[in-house]
Amino acid sequence: MSASSKPRRGLLLGLGNVLCEDDGLGVLALERLRVGYHWPEEMRLVDGGTLGMALLSTLEEAEEVWILDAVRVDAPPGSLVRLDGDEVEPALRERLSPHQIGVADLLDALHWRDRWPASLRVIGLVPQSLGLHVGLSEPIAAGLGVLEEVAVAEVRRAGHAVRPRRHDAARDRLGDDACLSRALGV
């Protein structure tokens, strides 16, 4: 990117339901990233929870989108999943978690309105359990750091200046329980 070019508007979108165990990993990862890094002004970090179509205007404004989410594929729980371009829609339609029906409708609306982002990626982990439970299973909790590293690396590769906070001090002070509390709004 040249010094005179302006970075594209980016969106890091955490999806999921924190009340359904591993389904909430996207929201929790987003909160950890928000606390652990300094983000440039052209990047929005949005907790999309299970909002579905309510996110339409947010996605329409973005030129680059990274979705953090639990993704069901034939792999062991905690495995990293990265989907890009044409892989995104079929995976979200075929391997539905409870909130992804709304995400599929959201992607359809982007097509209908001819507002598809220049790039759309999903970065996630294979869930172990989507049952009613607050907190993550062990394989997901163990894989969350890798998901975060991959997300930051991809955003940087796209030309956005993401900087860690000093020795992750903010996240160390906050801890995962506090990230969960913030994601729950309590």
Fold and architecture overview:
By secondary structure, this protein is an alpha/beta fold. The protein has a single domain (10-184), classed as Rossmann fold. The chain is built from six helices and seven strands, in the order βαββαββααβαβα. The strands form two sheets. A five-stranded mixed beta sheet has the order 3-1-4-6-5, covered by helices on one side. Helix 1 (25-36) packs antiparallel against helix 6 (169-184). The model has no long low-confidence stretch (mean pLDDT 84).
Report the principal-axis shape: globular
Overall pLDDT level: 84
**Fraction of residues in β-strands:** 15-25%
Poorly predicted runs of 5 or more residues: none
CATH topology: Rossmann fold
The neighbouring-strand order within the major sheet is 3-1-4-6-5
- Please tell me the total number of domains: 1
Distance between the first and last residues' Cα:
41 Å
The arrangement of helices and strands along the chain is EHEEHEEHHEHEH
Count of DSSP helices? 6
Q: Helix share of residues?
A: 25-40%
